[in-house]
Design brief:
By secondary structure, this protein is of the alpha/beta class. It contains 8 helices and 6 strands. Helix content is 37%, strand content 25%. It starts with a helix and ends with a helix.
Length: 174
């Protein structure tokens, strides 16, 4: 949904590409994206995947979930092996001979995003529905996302709630 929603297979042919995500969860979006990117991107290109997560999952739970969902085994093993402890702040992991960088940002996204300085080509807005997680859909988050998005950057989300649409539009997205 996020790869197609952001038209990534047509866009990540450029040398370097940055994707940011709200809601790392069990890392399925990262693993799916990294696997697809490795199959399609140029050999000299780099992917930076930045993801925010307030409640990190235990590595042993990641392992069970990844096995059930038949994730890319090599990438999953690397993620589980190097998964950082649940300490608030930024944690950087490298995959595929440093072609892929994963920056995990643990803690409250509204607070953590204020300290970020990057430009995302695309966003995965995957923080559950506004009724279950209203903090991830507030006006402040939408404004921060817009500020951290490259010109002509995109986002995709499952949410169709009116508050989400309004906040993203008011922040500057079309």
């Amino acid at each position: 949904m996020f790869i197609n929603g952001n038209q990534l297979t047509q866009r990540w042919q450029q040398k370097n590409f940055t994707i940011a995500e709200l809601g790392f969860g069990c890392g399925i979006n990262f693993l799916t994206t990294a696997s697809a990117w490795l199959k399609q991107a140029q050999s000299n290109s780099r992917l930076h995947f930045i993801s925010f997560e307030k409640h990190p999952i235990k590595p042993q739970d990641l392992e069970k979930i990844h096995a059930l969902l038949e994730c890319d085994v090599k990438l999953s093993e690397q993620l589980i092996t190097h998964y950082p402890p649940p300490v608030c702040g930024k944690h950087r992991l490298h995959f595929a001979n440093n072609r892929i960088t994963l920056t995990l940002i643990f803690g409250d996204a509204l607070e953590q995003i204020k300290h970020c300085d990057f430009e995302a080509d695309a966003w995965y807005l995957d923080g559950f529905s506004p009724s279950k997680n209203p903090a991830l859909w507030c006006e402040g988050i939408a404004q921060s996302i817009f500020k951290l998005t490259k010109h002509e950057g995109t986002f995709s989300t499952y949410s169709v709630a009116g508050v989400v649409k309004r906040n993203l539009t008011q922040a500057g997205f079309e």
